Amino acid sequence: MRIPVRLSLAKTATFAVLHFTVAFTIAYLLTGSIGIASTLALIEPMANTVAFFFHERAWSRFMPRFTGGETSLASTSK
Fold first, then answer.
1. What would the pLDDT profile of 43-62 be if each residue is shown by its tens digit?
2. pTM of the entire predicted model
3. Mean per-residue pLDDT, 9-27
4. Could you write out the DSSP letters of every residue in the chain?
């Protein structure tokens, strides 16, 4: 069973918010500049968020091969 695109988008959005927050906080602590921290927090997480969406879609496509058609990782520990 594949993960619906809607769920992947929701998961990606929450990941993006978390990632932007962490990136901004670290950049601000390192530079002391809101402007530089904001710029860094927009560029890197934006690229990473797009990559994460495609990573999540790839996992949903290949996961059934590893679980014998089931979607739970727990089922592989028989």
1. 987 888 788 888 888 888 87
2. 0.57
3. 89
4. -PPPHHHHHHHHHHHHHHHHHHHHHHHHHHH--HHHHHHHHHHHHHHHHHHHHHHHHHHHHHHHHHHTT---GGGG--
